[in-house]
Amino acid sequence: MREDGAADGGCDGNRRSFLGIAGLVTLALAPGVSLIAYAEGAARKHAGAGSQRRWGLLIDTAKCKESCTACVTACSAYNGWKNEGRPTDAQWIRKVQVTDPSTGFSRSVPLMCQHCANAPCVEVCPTGASFRRADGIVLVDRHICIGCRFCMMACPYKARSFISENLSGQRPWAPRGKGTVEACTLCVPRVDAGKVPACVEACAREGAGAMTFGDLHDPASDIRRALAAYPSVQLRADLMLDTGVRYEGL
Amino acid sequence: MLAIRLIIPTVVLALIAAAPAVAGRVPMPKIPAAKGAHCVRPTQWMRKNHMKLLMQLRYEAVHEGIRHKRESLPGCIACHVSRLPDGKYPSASSKQFFCNACHEYVGTRIDCFSCHSSRPDAAYEMADGLRHPVARAHQAGRGSAAGWAGAMALVAGRAASSSSRGAGRTRAKPNQGAAATRRERLRGRF
To answer: Which residues of A touch B66 (CB under 8 A)?
Structure first.
């Protein structure tokens, strides 16, 4: 349908010059635009829990001494909970003596939230307050927890506590309050800051160095190397919860 | 007609002159002064939208593990809560407490501090009253090429420093002189 080759060429020329100008404009604008995007992206995305990691804990029960409670004391001090022996007192971590009655084999182990991949507490929560972070840490969002305690009933490790009284003097990094359920957080503020949980640090410093913290997805991490080298178990492995806390020597 | 032309402006001027006296009779909230040079967002924006920002930061911190030091509740507390003349920190339910000064005035009640600490934590004390290197550059050179260049330089610096983050994020204490100059430049902007 073309009638005039020259007109066609002219049109092509116009397009070329337009593209040229557009290109120049883009060149002039793009650096500024991408600077904003880059600067803001870097500001908002510099941290955050991603599923490329899964935090885990390995406890060597052969090293853990019955008399030592350094992990419990450190957790209590860092997170600001107290257990004065009353049945309803908070208990993020506790020492448990496990004994095989048929042989008499006995070990003292620290027991806390096992940070399951298939966490029953998350499944039963009616509000979504009990949740699993992308990096495997199971937490309670106490802003939306209604204190129904379903999760406490669902947890096979009795890892969660309910706060039934008004509190004061909470730690700035560990908010806690009446009417909500709480448990071991694997010291998320510390983990997000690149440190290890308070119990692990205390075990290495005052205890026997029985606890190893690390990334279960990283084949080069201490915890993965130890898991590969020695046999370990998950507590109540029959429930197939895929726990983040593993025990050696049980 | 001329009389009206004269009277109306006179009345208007008289009213304007009398306005401070009228405003003085209205009880206003006494808002305790903050320690930093200015807020993490423009003050007027914060007056309307602080709750939205807090909700966003809360979600990011709890669910996504994105924690900003200054843009966080402890960061707000560090800047906005000071000791009273008697050396004690104000109770979260008293009028001397920053949040409560306005909330009590408008008749709203918040329950943040039944769980959260209402006292400043040493780790969050303000170094120079400004939050983020990028935001700082935005504010310092808003809209200008120098601002973007500054932002890029800071981002580059940030990337370099974040590569050594494994050993715990340590942040170099900003140069006090530079911080003072920056504060001087920003004074009056918000």
So the answer is: 44-48
Any CB–CB contact under 8 A between A135 and chain B?
A: yes
**Interchain pair B134, A194: CB under 8 A:** no
Interface of B with A in 136-165 (CB under 8 A): 137-138, 148, 151-152, 155, 158-159, 162, 165
Query: Which residue ranges make up each domain of chain B?
Result: 29-127, 130-160
Token couple for A5: 């080759």
B83 touches chain A (CB under 8 A): no
Distance CA A228, CA A231 (A): 8
A164: Cβ contacts below 8 Å, ≥ 6 apart: A88, A178, A179
pTM for the complete prediction? 0.70
Of residues A214, A247, A219, the one with CA closest to residue A233: A247
What are the phi and psi torsion angles at B76 (to 5°)? Answer: -60, -45
| B170-184: average pLDDT | 46
Query: Cβ contact (<8 Å) for A46 and B158?
Result: yes
Checking ipTM against 0.90, whether it exceeds it is no
pLDDT on residue B8: 64
Lowest mean pLDDT among A80-84, A97-101, B49-53, B172-176: B172-176
> Do the Cβ atoms of A170 and B134 come within 8 Å?
no
Q: Are A231 and A66 in contact (CB under 8 A)?
A: no
Question: A19-33, A205-219, B121-135: which has the minimum mean pLDDT?
Answer: B121-135
Strands A93-99 and A161-162: unpaired
Q: Answer yes or no: do B58 and A139 touch at CB < 8 A.
A: no
